[in-house]
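Quick one before lunch.
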Amino acid sequence: MFSNEEREAIYKVISTRRDIRSFLPDPVPKDAVDRVLEAAHNAPSVGFMQPWNFILVESDEIKEQLAWAAEKERRALAIHYEDDDRSTKFLNLKVEGIKEAPLTICVTCDPSRGGSHVLGRNSIPETDIMSTACAIQNMWLASCAEGLAMGWVSFYKKSDVQDILEIPLHIDPVALISIGYTDTYPKAPILETAKWEKRQSLKKLRYNNKWGE
Ligand SMILES: Cc1cc2nc3c(=O)[nH]c(=O)nc-3n(C[C@H](O)[C@H](O)[C@H](O)COP(=O)(O)O)c2cc1C
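Model of the flavin mononucleotide complex:
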């Protein structure tokens, strides 16, 4: 079905994709944004419910408000690190680039789409958000293939983002996605380089037949 080159390209995109928080002001071409959204819309979803919407934000004024919501949350979360060292390290981490990135896309999830009995969702209700996460991962891979930088921002109170973007209360603002170009596309996760977290050994995460074996 796929040539060796095509297969290698897929694995290359998967392994080189990074979460980016520093952006250049250059605008993102409209056709590239369209392809990234098309990739999102091709994602799998429980019962094919396609619970997502995409709110494209280019207005500096609205981006400022979203950045305010993220900054407020970042400072609030610092109290979870009682150890001074970890708290300072956390506060020094850049966790979003909303104001810098030319485009922010709020990806939402509508749990009511498809009615009350979406096929397969009765057992695990969170499958709507899982489906939305699949769409976001597709955006991430497509952006990387397009030479675009993308960052996933989840530091915010959902009610703040609902207020700013006038999202109805039953719709879940799952992610704020920053998209743009960058001159620093890192080879390793930023949190790894900042010595916050290491990649775990896959060998230790893999079991045979039963948990722990
Ligand atoms: C659900 C989810 C939420 C995330 N939220 C944030 C965020 O708010 N701020 C941030 O800087 N990175 C965020 N990230 C990015 C992770 O920090 C990043 O994926 C991880 O450190 C691994 O780095 P990599 O994506 O470059 O491989 C998020 C990632 C996921 C999957």
